Fold these 4 entries.
Entry 1:
Amino acid sequence: MNEEQRQFLSLLGQLPARLTAERAAWVLNCQLDDVPILVSARLLKPLGNPPPNSIKYFAASKLLELVQDRTWLAKVTNALSQHWCRHNARKRRHAAEDMVQVSPLCPSRQK
């Protein structure tokens, strides 16, 4: 945890009303890359109706409420584990396909 995170989290009683994805990740003790995963899994909901490529903000009060819910935390943990498991499996599958010898009997495998 860097110093900026430590200072931010020490203010938990005085959080701003809206948190960026980065600060929401700090509150959840996860990586910034995990926030979009949680949004797509519908475990986190950004404020308003932001377009896909815009900055997302999250309600601090809602986040603080959610982190007290053990069941929700278990869902978050499971969703992140499943996402990265699928991601790594795809990566391994693509690596294995790249290593397959191209056979003249199997033209569909040729690149």
Note: Strands lie at 18-20, 57-59.
Entry 2:
Amino acid sequence: MNLFEQILKDFAEDVNNAAKRTLGSRKIGKNRSYGVASRSLQKSLTYSIRDGKVSFGSPLPYAAFIHWGVNGTNKNRNAPFSYRQKQPPTDAIRKWMKVKPIRVRDKDGRFVKATESRLQSAAFLIARSIKRNGIHGLRYYEVALETVVPQYNKKLGEALAQEFVKDMKFTTGNITIKPK
């Protein structure tokens, strides 16, 4: 592995780690995962390097929605995705409610016993609110690139220049000169 490929690998690793930190950095008190349900998106972030090009991504189908956000029916989030007639599935909201212990309240704001019908009703209301207001995008890779690229500008440029000079050769007649 040449110098440029090694620095490119280090760059990709740092960008991926910065994106993971952005996804899991919401902490309140002792609650490390405030706002983060299962950390499955954070764990799934990957990168690949092919022909001097780096690709970042996640195999999870909802990764793009979290990154770019989703426009709601009442609020525009400047995202490429929009809710129209459909709304988020209530079973996904119910799973989230179980991971984040959501307590149900009555109309006066007092906590009440969480029966199945109350939980289903709360999940439906949360899903309807998400449909109306949309999802604000987190742009975790953009944040990561903004923080890591300035650190690697000079290193990547110098390594690329060294590789370029190493591959050069000058031919005059039957004499070939290669720089060291």
Note: The chain is about 50% helix and 10% strand.
Entry 3:
Amino acid sequence: MTRDAIQSIDQQWNMAYQTNDHASLAHILADDWTAIDARGKRVTKAAILDQVTHVPWPFTNAQFQTISSWQGNDVAVVTGRLTGRGQVGDQEVAVDQYYTRIYVVRDKRWQAVATQVTAVQPDV
């Protein structure tokens, strides 16, 4: 599978978040997918799909940036950064985080199996 394929599926993941597309994200994430979020909490596939289904994307100007990607025969790693600002009710919200996503080939297609998210700390 080509490098373009992994970049395409990673972009599909980003778009699924922004459009609250439960079906696309469910297809990308393996059933045993797990993540550690920016607060250090474990997140399962069921939990993230519930969030995507019930919590509208709050960021009006979010930007995903791929920093690097590596691909072997049946495994790929994508590192990126998400920044954005938005509104939840009367409260302004912001996001600035790095993420690492690990994909493997299963049933002849790429699926995400693990994710690590780290909040970007401001320079002091």
Note: The domain at 3-119 is CATH 3.10.450.50 (Nuclear Transport Factor 2; Chain: A,).
Entry 4:
Amino acid sequence: MSRIGKKPVDIPSGVDVKLLESTIQVKGPRGELSWSFPQGTSVSVRDNKVLVERADDLKKTRALHGLTRSLIANMVQGVTQGYQRVLDITGVGYRAQVQGNKITFSLGYSHPVEFNLPQGISAAIDPKQTQITLTGVDKQKIGQIAANLRSLRSPDAYKGKGVRYSGERLKLKVGKTGKK
């Protein structure tokens, strides 16, 4: 059996978990999430714990057992604590500004780049306008938005200029050497 799939997910106080056929809904102080779990897995709520069990030992079902439990645990953590992802903007003149649910970037292109944030995701920018903090309840959505923002101007291989995840380490290439 899956080691991760066997572990129960504790439900903290203030979180409400509902099961509707093959859908689980988690509601907490920060928001509400729902997800349709795959066939072959069954989810039950007992004694303030969510238990995930599988119907058979097929390879596909075994693979989905631990995944289902992890996604439910991420939902519970998202509605209680939330998730955040920090991005750094490196480069002379590179900056960002937030206006409502839209981020406007100046990334060395001939035009400003505008990025609309989806509902449920908020962004904050530090006073130097070089660090973006994304916050929300859905871990997958936060990660996807961070990846989309990074792809607007990925860090280049020689100087490292661009948008990168905070704490991301880059191995910079050496430039050309002069003639002797």
Note: The two ends are 65 Å apart (CA to CA).
